[in-house]
Amino acid sequence: MTPSSRTLEITVISAENLKLDRKPIKKNASVTVRTDTNSQFRTTEMDTEGGSYPRWNEKLVLDMPTHSRSITVEVQCKTSYGVRTIGTASIPASDFVGGYVPEGYLHFLSYRLRDHMGERNGIINISVRMKVPEMCACSSSTTSSHSKMGFPAAGNNNSGGGVAIGVPVWYGAYQKNY
Questions:
Q1: Radius of gyration, CA atoms only, the chain
Q2: pLDDT tens-digit map of 147-160
Q3: What is the pairing mode between strands 168-171 and 174-177?
Q4: Are 6 and 71 in contact (CB under 8 A)?
Q5: Higher pLDDT residue, 70 or 177?
Q6: Nearest-CA neighbor of 25 among 56, 55, 54, 52?
Q7: Domain 5-130, second-level architecture
Q8: Mean pLDDT, the chain, whole residue set
Q9: SMART domains from the entry (predicted)?
Q10: Rounded distance between C-alpha atoms, residue 74 and residue 111, angstroms
Q11: Which of 49, 95, 166, 176 is spaced 20 to 30 A from 17 at the CA atom?
Q12: What is the C-alpha to C-alpha distance for residues 29 and 73, in angstroms, rounded to an integer?
């Protein structure tokens, strides 16, 4: 059974060179993170001191459906006229899911923000980690404190059993498992 969503831990670290109407912002910046497929979102606390270089270092936990292709990071600023969007970045899921890194790998990412006109307006710095589901070691015996994983090695008849391990080794254009 495959899960219908993945849990992401997104740490909004900081932003750089934020401007509103081409002037550096003075304070009151926050960040909202959402997926492309549902209405779930999370928002940071407001940075009241960082000006155009705010820092949050705040972890947001977000469920991302497996069919989602991206997350959106939006930086806002509270002004006397209300909350205004400074810039937005769309982050492809392929930047932090899959590839050659293990699940649970911590990705540090920086993206260019774009304002409502599509113009460059600062940079957002985040880290993303996909939470790895914890394995349930379900057992009918209540006396066993841990379970064994693997396959018994052929020809090993002792009671402790062995585990066959395959280690991929690359040789030129082909791969062998030993």
A1: 23
A2: 444 445 555 555 55
A3: antiparallel
A4: no
A5: 70
A6: 52
A7: Sandwich (2.60)
A8: 80
A9: C2
A10: 11
A11: 95
A12: 13
CA-to-CA distance for 28 and 141, rounded, in angstroms? 56
CA distance 55 to 75: 12
Reduced 3-state DSSP string for the chain: CCCCEEEEEEEEEEEECCEECCEECCCCEEEEEEECCCCCEEECCCECCCCCCCEEEEEEEEEEECCCCEEEEEEEEEECCEEEEEEEEEEEHHHCCCCCCCCCCCEEEEEEEECCCCCEEEEEEEEEEECCCCCCCCCCCCCCCCCCCCCECCCCCCCCCCECCCCEEEECCEEEEC
Residue 32 token pair: 């909202």
Structure-block tokens of residue 99: 């590839």
